[in-house]
Write a structure and sequence with these properties.
- This protein has 247 residues and is mostly helical.
- The protein is 62% helix and 3% strand.
- A 3-stranded mixed β-sheet has the order 1-3-2, with helices on one face.
- Strand 2 and strand 3 form a beta hairpin.
- It is globular.
Length: 247
Amino acid sequence: MLKSTLHHTLISIAVGLLFLLGLPLAGVGLYWLVTFPDVARLAKTNPRSTALMKTRLSQARAQGQSSRPQWIWVPLSQISPALQRAVIVAEDASFYNHEGFDWEGLKEAAVRNLGAGKLERGGSTITQQLAKNLYLSSEKKLLRKAREALITRALERHLTKQRILEIYLNVVEWGRDVYGAEAAARHHLGKSVNDLTPDEAALLAAILPAPRRHDPLEITPYLVRRQQYILRWMRKTNGDSQSSITN
């Protein structure tokens, strides 16, 4: 009798704990569901702003600085194929072959981070970068990464690869208050993005990992090495990349 009573008591306590633990988890789940972005609308509607743009504006105001974003939206057909190839080579070589996540890249990044003893590189794909750029903060927290993963899957499910690339190239940060390929080409090189040469395209792609650090643009040994690396891979993968870009 005592064993039975104790057993029922333990079960009651366990159920109670699960209920109490479940309330916060259910609340988080409900919040995520209610606030989850309407990714499907991006198939036909261009974003009016991004989370990163809003963050940069808030940072500028907090520092008492003015912020005048340079941002000119252009369709993918007006973005130099050379720049499309250069960015894919530089940022996500397997872009057309994955469904949002480059597992080999993530594994390599994890090994590098383990060796460094800290989170230095994330192995993010273009789709993951777009998810973060459009909707999320830059904090490297577990819940934010989980939300990024969900949005990444939604982007891949609702949008074509061409549309993902088009949005990415139009919203990615390319300097201080410089967003998108057209503004970047004008700001850094004084010309339209559709008129870029392969060398210029590779140079613009080379500054993407740290665009604010390379603004104003100075041709450093690091940028030249990275530009040449991108150019070599553009030539090596030209056939496969070109067929993907023009389809």
